[in-house]
Structure formats: C-alpha cells, structure tokens
Amino acid sequence: MQFCAASVQLAPFKGRIEENLNRIAEAALRCSEEGAELVVFPETITTGYFLEGGVAELSMTSQELVERLHRALKSCAGNKTFQKDLDIILGFYEEEDGIFYNSGAHINFQKGNPALLHVHKKFFLPTYGVFDEERFVARGKKIQTYPTRFGPFAILICEDVWHSISATIAALKGAEVIAVLAASPVRGVSSTKYDNLERYERMLRAIGEEHGVWVINSMLVGFEGGKGFCGGSIIVDPFGKIRAQGPLAEEFILIADIDLDEIPVARQQFPALADLRSVLDNIIEQFQECEMQC
Fold it and tell me: Is the pTM for the entire model greater than 0.90?
C-alpha cells in the first residue's frame, strides 16, 4: 500500500475557529491538488494552544468539528466539486459530556462526504514549565489503533511521545502509521536547532526504528502570549530515517510518499517489536509488581 501524505505547519489565529477552519480547508485542498491523500495538521490547530480558561468556550464536540470542517471545505472548493477522497487528521479542544479534552480527530472525506474514523484524547498532560494542561482539560484513558483505507493508524499528541510507552502500546496494538500532532514552544536556542526540537527528532526517529512504523509529525508555528512554536515537522520511515523535514518557525507544507510495504522489511531487519511481543506476559508481570510497590 502506497499513498502520498502531507504535514502542514500553520500558525492559527488564537480563538478564531471559523478563520482557522477556513485556512485548514484551503491548505487541505491545496495538498489534495498536489496529490496528497492524507493531510495532517498540528495539535489545537482550530484555536491555538494556550487558551487556559478559554478552553470551555472554544471546545466543540467531535461531530461539530466534522460538520464545521465539511462546510469550510465545501466553501473553499467553490464552484469546483470536492470529489477527491481525502483524509484529514487535526488537533482540537474537544467537549464530550461536559468534559474537555485536548484531542486529535481523523476524518475521511469520501467524494466529499465526511466520516469520523477516530478521536484520540491526549493521554499524558504536561504540568511543568509553561504547561498546566491538567487545570483545563481531562486526560484520555486509552491509546488505540483504528482502521483506515491506508492501513492501521494511531494518533499521539505532543507529551504522549515524550513517554516511549505510548508509541510502544500503539505498535503492539497494530499501528503501522502513527500521526504525532504537536504544539511545542521553543526551548533552548544553544545550537542550530532548538533543544526541544532536537529531542523531538530523536524520539520520533527512535519510534520509527524500534517499532518499524511510519511517523507523520505536524508541528504548530506562530506566537501566543510571547511564546513561539518551533515548527520543524518531520516524516520518519520504518527504518528511523527522516524522509522529509519542515523549516523552523514558519508555515510550510511537507509532502512525502508513504510505502507501507517497507514495514515488513524493516521489521525483519530489526525484529524488536516481535521480540517485545514474545516477552509481553513477563513485562506485564513486571508492571504489576511496580504497581504493588507504589
């Protein structure tokens, strides 16, 4: 299975959902015209990241997101018929049963008609430095894989990948492509890259290489309250090599061909995931012992 994927770096207008959805739609249609069948956008792209108390006002249900994005796509397509099949993954603040989450949604538009495939609620919420997410959103309880027309996918959001066990769970559950949505403020400018971006690059390459999966990462850019987001999105192959990389701190569209047939080759050369499966019962016992000791 081969397909063309795009990762879009955008700077959202803080709190202006309709304008942001229009920009998302414009970028998605442009990617589609350039051959992309999947377009990935960053964490909280519909509103901006640092909403704090504004989360309650600017959150929406996943179904509302689907309907509003569908309207934006039809409006942007204008007189042209929006007929190409297109998948969009994007981050948003979600409201579900009166509880708020930092979530990522995968929506399939088949001949223009939308279908919500999956919603991932951010599992690990950062509460250090400039981050204080647990004050404003609840954390998700599951890391899941889900079927797509391309193959099995998983979504992880920002802090999720700073804990290596998140990608491990996704890979063990069968994910072949992991979409990583992020909004990472610049930290450390001691080299040609930002310190946090260098860490991201190491983590995402390690995920691809250890588990033999494709990693499609989309990073937020722009400024909010004096904090700049780093950009530098990457697409990593199942050998851990970077296939495409975006520039620092500016809007950009990154496009790469994704070949899922490379996954069995990578996993044969480095069977770490198979080795892990073979000792999974023992690992679960170790976790249970850790839980008893806590």
Answer: yes
